[in-house]
Automatic annotation (TrEMBL):
Organism: Eunotia naegelii
PROSITE patterns noted in UniProt: AAA (PS00674)
A Gene Ontology term for the protein's cellular component: chloroplast thylakoid membrane
The keyword Cell inner membrane is annotated on this UniProt entry: no
Gene: ftsH
Residues holding ATP: G226, P227, P228, G229, T230, G231, K232, T233
Transmembrane segments: 6-23, 129-151
Record protein name field: ATP-dependent zinc metalloprotease FtsH
Family (UniProt): In the N-terminal section; belongs to the AAA ATPase family. In the central section; belongs to the AAA ATPase family.
Length: 630
């Protein structure tokens, strides 16, 4: 009999026990009276020649004094009576009438004797011994046994040790004596520096004598810091597989409960178990859930979290040292972690796992392309060039989407078309329905070609990857640019080129259709332009105000003062407007100088709806004016 069947049987017994205990405890539907009522009903049914009705006790006494009562049968300890009466009111015909006798009517028997009434008392039917034992002993035992069973086995049924009330203080960490995660260091690419740090820890666990010979100690804690999807959890899986030592994995949120003391008890239980299996690794994912800076809030929930953090600090480097337990934490919010958690002795190393560069993206794509059949026309190098800012998880998802599209199109290999479509879906969104040939479609075509022409003419802008009129996400048309290399540092000329190119779409609408026909389609472009220009003034010192940082990353002002504050704010707005107006003039000159090629490309774009970068550059090559200096 499997576990699910046992659970169903116990639930059935549990419900039956609850029903019977409820009936007995709360006397639901008057259990004893119900039994007696059945007896009375049976007595009435024996005499088919008479009818039955009800009578009040006062009316019964009047009938008794008038001599109209012939016989009385008492039930339920004289609480109920069946009276046989005959009177002129009843047509001198005998009838059986039910009477409820109130409590305290102790002289009824004496009155019946005085009037020489034939009466009889019927005792309550005695319950069987089995029923008495069942209702008083067996069913409560089933009830208690079922509760104990559910509490002790809730972990097995739910798969979560923390869900059982009996295990509230137990560690919720998953334990593997010899973990086989299926991930090795060979499966990780794009984060070579972080991988080298972990390879050293694995070497320490496998050959500790090499390090102890020169007095080195194994790090107590390693903190992985980086944006989501960069491979922090993947590194933990790899070290678990490569080190071949006991491995505990848990999420930081699993320690925080509403009951004060539960989280601290779970921390103690986790490190107690870990110390019994040294050397071992404890991986705490999203450690910021429990390691947030203390004193940042008020209330019971915050007190519980702070107690949990205090216990974690004590276990990692307290008076009692835990030797051989390496704690690996992962977070993308290192800025909110408590300073005591980050000091050496707790987390000795902080490893930053950044977004991969171009070579890193190529390596990641090669890892995820191993088990996928790609056509010869697919270039992972070109795909890596097209996906700056993608994390390892994003690249894995891109190739998986391409494989799904190949299956949808019933292809045996993944071609360049599926890869490009998957990239377009991730960057721009799912493709929508093609627009009809209307004035709006023509206006959008000019808008997108304006972006492309301006970006192509400028020296410091990226090359055009694709122009399309196929709607994706919230955009009715898109123009993609591909950088030649990852831009970690951006120059002033590059920022100005971005502003000019972004304004190119709206300027083209003005030049071709006139000011009255300018649409709201450039609203997002204007927001981007304003943001870039403002950062140039307030953060990068690229304006006439001078090399002064006036705002931080959160756009919070870094200067103080009343009137001077307002004056500087006015100067900021003035400089932002100057930059944007200057860039708009340059974009207008480029559009006017290249109006002929713009019209030609728009006609081709309206016919084909999508033009790739090589085709666009071939069309532009012989018609554009010399690059404009910005």
């Amino acid at each position: 009999m499997d576990r699910n069947t046992i659970q169903k049987i116990l639930i059935g017994l549990f419900l039956i026990a609850c029903i019977f205990i409820g009936l007995k405890t709360f006397n639901i539907i008057g259990f004893n009276e119900f039994t007696e009522a059945q007896t009375v009903s049976n007595t009435v049914d024996l005499n088919a020649n008479v009818s039955s009705s009800r009578m009040t006790y006062g009316r019964f006494l009047e009938y008794l004094e008038m001599g109209w009562i012939k016989q009385v049968d008492l039930y339920d300890n004289s609480r109920n009576a069946i009276v046989q009466a005959s009177s002129p009111e009843l047509g001198n015909r005998p009838q059986l009438i039910r009477v409820e006798i109130p409590v305290g009517a102790s002289q009824l028997i004496q009155k019946l004797k005085e009037y020489n009434i034939d009466f009889d008392a019927h005792p309550i039917p005695r319950k069987s011994i089995f029923f008495t034992i069942a209702s008083n002993l067996i069913l409560p035992l089933i009830f208690i046994a079922s509760l104990i069973f559910f509490f002790q086995n809730s972990e097995n049924f739910s798969g979560n040790s923390g869900s059982s009330p009996m295990n509230l203080g137990k560690s919720p960490a998953r334990f593997d004596q010899r973990p086989d995660t299926g991930i090795s260091f060979n499966d990780i690419a794009g984060i070579d520096e972080a991988k080298a740090e972990f390879e050293e820890i694995v070497s320490f666990l496998k050959e500790p004598e090499r390090y102890t010979l020169v007095g080195a100690k194994i790090p107590k804690g390693v903190l992985l810091v980086g944006p989501p999807g960069t491979g922090k959890t993947l590194l933990a899986k790899a070290i678990a597989n490569e080190a071949n030592v006991p491995f505990y994995s848990v999420a930081g949120s699993e320690f925080v409960e509403m009951f004060i003391g539960i989280g601290a008890a779970r921390i103690r239980d986790l490190f107690k178990k870990a110390s019994e299996n040294t050397p071992c690794i404890v991986f705490i994912d999203e450690i910021d859930a429990v390691g947030r800076e203390r004193g940042a809030g008020i209330g019971g929930g915050n007190d519980e979290r702070e107690q949990t953090l205090n216990q974690l600090l004590t276990e990692m480097d307290g008076f009692k040292e835990n030797k051989g337990v390496i704690v690996v934490g992962a977070t993308n919010r290192v800025d909110i972690l408590d300073a005591a958690l980050l000091r050496p002795g707790r987390f000795d190393r902080q490893i930053t796992v950044n977004l991969p560069d171009r070579l890193g993206r190529i390596g990641i794509l090669k890892v995820h392309a191993k088990n996928k059949p790609f056509d010869k026309d697919v270039s992972l190098v070109q795909l890596a060039n097209r996906t700056p800012g993608f994390s390892g998880a994003d690249l894995a998802n891109l190739l998986n989407e391409a494989a799904i599209l190949a299956t949808r199109y019933k292809k045996k290999t993944i071609t360049k078309n599926e890869v490009n479509e998957a990239a377009d879906r991730i960057i721009g969104g799912i493709a929508g329905t093609t627009m009809e040939d209307t004035k709006n479609k023509k206006l959008i075509a000019y808008h997108e070609v304006g972006h492309a022409i301006v970006g192509s003419v400028l020296e410091n802008h990226d090359e055009v990857e694709k122009i399309t009129l196929i709607p994706r996400g919230g955009a009715k048309g898109l123009t993609w640019f591909t950088p030649e290399e990852d831009q970690t540092l951006v120059s002033r000329s590059q920022l100005l080129a971005r502003i000019i190119t972004t304004l190119g779409g709206r300027v083209t609408e003005q030049v071709v259709f006139g000011d009255p026909e300018v649409t709201t389609g450039a609203s997002n472009d204007l927001q981007q332009v304003t943001n870039i220009a403002r950062q140039m003034v307030t953060r990068y010192g690229m304006s006439n105000i001078g090399p002064i940082a006036l705002e931080d990353e959160n756009n919070e002002q870094m200067f103080l003062g009343g009137e001077s504050n307002e004056a500087i704010a006015d100067r900021i707005d003035t400089e932002v407007c100057k930059i944007i107006n200057h860039c708009e003039q340059i974009a207008t000159e480029i559009i006017l100088d290249n109006r002929v090629i713009i019209d030609l490309i728009v006609e081709k774009l309206l016919d084909e709806e999508t033009i790739n970068g090589d085709e666009f550059r071939q069309l532009v090559k012989n018609y554009t004016v010399l690059p404009t200096k910005n």
